[in-house]
Model the fold of this input.
Amino acid sequence: MHFKDYKVIIFLSVFVFSLTSAKALSYYTYQSGNWSTPNVWTTDPSGTTLVSPAVPGNGDNVTILNGITVTLTGNVATTTHVLTINSGGILNLATFTF
Done:
């Protein structure tokens, strides 16, 4: 192999590692509302404090807590969520898909 070939292999290795090393975030419901509303989501596991509100992205862990209803207003375009709906939590799909 030539030096140039090693550079390509190293570049591809770093690129693949960076794609696979992205860490999933965990989001919990803070209040009832639409899936696409950032203030519905918090990174606080208790759901009592609004911390880092954002709509869950690809691969994120999502938990709908007791007493909270999250409503879809369109198909969820992000993928590979780990979805947990605690007892008493509701995911209202309406006519959309998750």
Q: What stands out?
A: The longest strand covers residues 26-29. The longest helix spans residues 3-20.
